[in-house]
Amino acid sequence: MLDAIQSLSHEALARLASAQTPEALEEIRVDVLGRKGKLAAFGKEMAKLSAADKATAGKALNEAKAALEAAFEAKSTLFQKAALAEKLQQEWLDLTLPAPGVRPGALHPLTLIQNEIEDLFYSMGFVILDGPEVETEFHNFDALNIPPDHPARDMQDTFWLEGGHLLRTHTSPVQVRGMQTLGPPLRMIAPGRVFRNEEVDPSHEHTFYQLEGMMVDKDVSVANLLYFMKTLLKGIFHRDVTVRLRPGFFPFVEPGFELDIECMVCGGSGCPVCKHSGWVELLPCGLVHPNVLRSGGIDPTQWSGFAFGLGLTRLVMMRYVIDDIRWLQSGDLRFLNQFANQFAPAGGL
Amino acid sequence: MKFSHQWLEELVPGLGIEGREVARLITLHTAESEGVEAHGELLGGACPATVLAVEEIPGAKNRKALVATAQYGEKTLVCGAPNCRAGLQTIYVPLGVKRISGIDSDGMLASAAELGINADDDGIIELSGDAPVLAPDEVIEIDNKSLTHRPDLWGHFGMARELAAILRQPLRDPVNISLLPAGDPAIEVVIEDLDLCPRYSALVFENVRVAPSPWSMQYRLRAIGLGTKNNIVDVTNWLLAELPQPTHAFDADKLHGKIIVRRARSGEKLLALNDLEYELTPADLVIADEAGPIALAGIIGGKHSAITDSTTRIVLESANFHAATIRKTSSRLKVRTDASMRFEKAQDPENTTRAIARAIELFAQVAPGIRTVGGVADVRSPQRPETVISLDLAWLTRKLGREVPKPEVVGLLERLAFRIIDHGASLEVGVPTWRATKDISLPDDLVEEVGRMVGYASIPPTAPLMPVAPPPVNHERRYHNRLRQQATAQGFTEVYNYSFISEQQAAQLGLPLEAHLRVLNPIASDQSLMRTALLHGILKNFEENSKHFPRFAFFEIGKEIHKQATGLPQETPHLAAGFYGEGGLAELTRLAECLVGCVDVLPTADVRPFEHPLRTAEIFVGEKQIGRLFEFHPEWLEGRAAVLDLDLSLTMALDAARQIKYTPIRRFPASEFDLSVLAPPRTYARTIAQILHAARAPRVEAIRFLTDFTLPDASRSLTFRITIADPTRTLTQDDITTARTHLLSALQSHGYELR
Fold first, then answer.
1. Which of B227, B281, B535, B700 is the residue whose CA sits 20 to 30 A from B324?
2. What is the mean pLDDT of residues B41-52?
3. Is A130 on the interface with B (CB under 8 A)?
4. A95 to chain B, minimum CA–CA distance in Å?
5. Is B474 on the interface with A (CB under 8 A)?
6. Which pLDDT score, from 0 to 100, does residue A34 have?
7. How far is B26 from chain A (nearest CA, A)?
8. SS3 sequence, chain A?
9. pLDDT category, B468, cuts 50, 70, 90?
């Protein structure tokens, strides 16, 4: 019987080895290892053997069964792997096709810059305020130390509205509103849309964006103003910027300055961008005029402050080298979509 | 305002720097320079010359001239001037040899215009007697806006004072006040309102011979852009450009009696020097004689009393006027002159007689034989007391952020003509009259004087020593920015549109004109109203972008401006989004959900003319309407153009009220089944969904629309997927049956069946 087991084992192993398909393999498994298979038949015959022979034959039978099962598993795995490999070969995919689905639109470049600057100032402790676009004459002029018939009113061509109101010519009225709401000490900025009655051309717009800034505290000095302006400019341009202050006249500040930055195109040696002066005018600023503090309900003998105005539109044009200001409010998606994927900081805190 | 370098150098003899450096120093310390230009460049190397002979060039308009020059010997050149003739004394300019009309032309003969003397370019300059000694000049242009607060800088003497102070050089005053004649005036002056005319000085001159002024005077006036007319008028321009005191010369023989400074009478008219007739009102100040107005005070003279070639006696007016009054009249009548520009900056009343003294000297130079008659008429309000400011030096240091040593403060203020008394810790500062009219009245004004003179570059940037605290959040701004981020993430690009619309645009959307706030002085008639909706801009964005793109999405966050009965208008923030192309309404519904959360889209039949009659809906959150969704009517816009319009003041309130509350995760599995409902044509899915929700079937966790299709008879099949679950136990078949039965009977009670 041992021999019979032996020869069956040999023969079955050979058949397993030569099986060509999973079906043939299964046939062999049923024939040999199946419940009614040849090995099972030996099991029935073993009952007739002596105890000693039974032990020997049983051992041989178990060994043969284990060997055949292992061989079957090995062969079966081989077939599965081959089948999977064959299936994967059928799964070719064009990975280079454009992906479907929504693409992000673009934020307006003015929003991008505005968010950036708002974040910068918020991080330095400045509140972000809004003010109305339609203003009273008082807030836009009188409260800012520009009485009626002051020639300084000529500096800002004004759109007048029925009912005696006007479209704000600068964001400075928010200074007064801010002082009235917040009280001293305060740090605030106010970005927004402003209007000037000017003919529109590639470098002039009747509608543009400014950012007003103001700080009121004890003993705020020109030196403090310079510090904040340098910090601001470093934040905007991501590098140290050489600045100069020179006298500038704005009725709501005293002293008043124009802050120039060294021309970034020529580095100060003179070029058409800076009109060969080496400097580009960027920020009007100054110490808040006592009359303006008073308009905001703040005692100028106790408090002092600085204020500045930043032309956001101009900054956008510098940043993105935009040659015609009219693109900004054209609503033209050929222009605006170029600003997609500009991952602006969250902004607007 | 233009400044002549030569003129400045006369007043600051030690100037010693060129125009560019003058411009730089003025920019850093005083006012903004807009550049430096050469004037009279051709005068470099020019010399007198006599034309010896002139001959025609065959076939050319030009002629050939032989000239004897004072410096370069005889020259042959080609000249086109009609007055070029043998024996003419003129000016030769060496320019090198150029081939003109077939002849080598060596240099040129110049016209007065080419030399920068005056506007005469009819022919080459004709000299009589001595040749003018003129040299090329430089003109420094200063931005007028930066001089708004400085009446004194509207003339060379004021700017010279700045330069002298910056450079620590002596300043030469061109005025010799001792020239003023004593005695009774030969003209009577009456001022009706001393507030409007604080001072009026006048002097009569006789034996006047009106003639062109000398080349040198013309050249100077030409350099700074002033016209030249005759010796008398040129002197008045000189005074304006130098001191800077606007003056006016009347023909004394054309005046009737005394000079009266008064308000104009209603309806009074004046024919001015510019040949325009102005109708006046009592708001206007005039100079009149006993017959009527002879000048618009501080602005422009009258035609009838103007100087002519036959004038022999003049009245020279040198007066001071109330700035705002001059400005009002000048802007109402739209006549701005060199004089009005100066007076509206509040000129110094103490300057009037100085100008007359200077005029006496200048007239003597340019109108030989001229004589003064009588003394100076000088009617005025009392001289204003000196403005005195106490300047606390420690305060000054705190304001500037650096200490300026006292001797330096004193020195620089004195160089600017401030009067100083040292009180130790503070200075008593007397303000010179020409700075006291408007410019300087507060210690803060002196901070500027000190700061600008020491130079702001000397101030070190310094961080403030102050406590910091996180600033309060601007919730509205943060909310709007969140919407912007979300909208762009959903594929919409942000646009900014103008706040102005035209009447036609307003009418196009059927909005009543009177609902719009009107701009009184629009740039163009198509920008005369303030927008009461963002839709005008959106419509335009559709029209223009559809030329370039078949499909696009965009949005704007902006303010609607709504007129109020009283007070400022209401500015309501809106978000308007547009989608061009098929499927836009669905895209916009998705956007609304992304921006606002759960929204109800309620189709409405109450449509505006520009809306698609069957594709318009109101957007609700709960009971609150927050916006509108529609497609533009095809008569308004070609192609499918869908719009979502949200009132952000409403959505923000909802957003702020929303609270996130955690629900424990269910431990027992849910079960789902689908219901396909058969509904009549044009039944809205929302109608069915509402019935299903309202049924309140037990254990129903969610009701979701799955799919729909239209049957051949146009009735609709709408499939919903129902999820049921029980938080406390595993579901049984009974649970499912109960829920299903419940929902079915609700549907049936509304007349719907399953398909």
1. B227
2. 94
3. yes
4. 23
5. yes
6. 87
7. 9
8. CHHHHHHHHHHHHHHHHHCCCHHHHHHHHHHHHCCCCHHHHHHHHHCCCCHHHHHHHHHHHHHHHHHHHHHHHHHHHHHHHHHHHHHHHCCCCCCCCCCCCCCCCECCHHHHHHHHHHHHHHHCCCEECCCCCEECHHHHCHHHCCCCCCHHHHHCCCCEEHHHCEECCCCCHHHHHHHHHHCCCEEEEEEEEEECCCCCECCECCEEEEEEEEEEECCCCHHHHHHHHHHHHHHHHCCCCCEEEEECCCCCEEEEEEEEEECCCCCCCCCHHHCCCCEEEEEEEEEECHHHHHHCCCCCCCCEEEEEEEEHHHHHHHHHCCCCHHHHHCCCHHHHHHHECCCCCCCCC
9. confident
